[in-house]
Amino acid sequence: MEPSKALRELIKKTEKISKTNLDTLILGEGGTGKDWIVSEIIKNSDLEKIDSSDWRTSLNLLNAQSILKKENLIFFNMEEMDTEGQLLLYRAIEKKEIFYNKINIQFKRVFFLANVSLIEKVKTGNFREDLFSKISSVQLTIPPLRERKEDILYFTHLFLIELCKKHKKKVPGLSENFINFLLTNPWFGNLRELKSLLESIIIFGKGQSLTIKHIPSNYKNSITNRSELDIKPGISLKIYEREIIKTNLIQSNGNRKKTSEILGISERNLYRKIKDYNLENLSFGSIDDAFDNII
Asked: Does residue 74 share a domain with residue 204?
């Protein structure tokens, strides 16, 4: 099973970038595979991957592993970078060293991961324009899974092999109705959502072939609710975001890890949004009136 033309072209770009020492900005929705792209770029290199969504933790990890013989790189999630981190990074990029916690930390390369909304943050002044200019000279943009349907079955095949090996199960076949479900589902959580669903099915499912019956009922309900969202003019994006988060929290019975996977955002980001939207004391009952606040 071959990947789509778009994915093949993306892989070719990663091969070219891997032969350089250039810092790289990787844009894409949550769950599209930004960290996978980084792994592809450095898999044949002598770089040590410092992986963390929080820049402070990244620097602490980098310092702790500085005794390694491998050259280090930093793997930054720009969505979580506050003003202090932006200033520190701006000053450090050219020198390839950061003075942090009274320690001089050296690195060879930086990968900047961000949602496409980072560009909007630049426009609204919530992200330094001069820093964005520094990090965006080399860019890779990963399209969402719903825009590259050809890759759904390709990644389904890869994930099933990986997950069945992990859980010591036999790789199942795919029925026609299951394939149809895969190809018509919007996958707002992208690859992360696809893999999470497949793992749930592998763990609890039985039989030699996956059918529509193997899909958990709560997941089917979640899809229904997402597709029934009524987009009305004059309603702010914040209101829709709040209600989408609220609906999925209710559907997941308050399970924040599961909710973050469905939404395709980090748990840290979800916790912040729950606080911002005053959803800490949300009760988990019926979802019938989840969108009542949208007028």
From this structure: no
Q: Report the CATH number that the domain containing residue 117 is assigned in CATH.
A: 3.40.50.300
Task: Work out the number of other CB atoms within 10 angstroms of the CB of residue 156.
Answer: 21
In a 10 Å sphere around its CB, with 0-12 CB exposed, 13-18 middle and 19+ buried, how is residue 64 labelled? exposed
Which two structure tokens, joined as six digits, stand for 79?
Answer: 């969505």
How many whole angstroms separate alpha carbon 21 and alpha carbon 265?
Answer: 29
Pairing of the two strands 71-77 and 209-210: unpaired
Q: Does residue 137 sit in the same domain as residue 228?
A: no
CA distance linking residue 140 with residue 108, whole number of Å? 19
Q: pLDDT tens digits, residue range 177-215?
A: 999 999 988 888 889 899 999 999 998 877 789 998 998
> Per-residue pLDDT tens for 53-102?
567 777 777 666 554 445 566 667 786 788 888 888 888 888 888 777 77
Residue 292 lies in a domain: no
Q: How far apart are CA 16 and CA 101, in angstroms?
A: 35
Domain that holds residue 112: 5-143
d(CA 9, CA 26): 15
Q: 133 and 257 share a domain?
A: no
DSSP per position, 142-192? EPPGGG-THHHHHHHHHHHHHHHHHTT-PPPEE-HHHHHHHHHS--TTHHH
Q: Where a domain ends, among 114, 143, 172?
A: 143
Tokens (6 digits) for 146: 């719903």
Residue 295 lies in a domain: no
Per the domain annotation, does 287 fall within a domain? no
How far is Cα 75 from Cα 62, in angstroms, rounded to an integer? 10
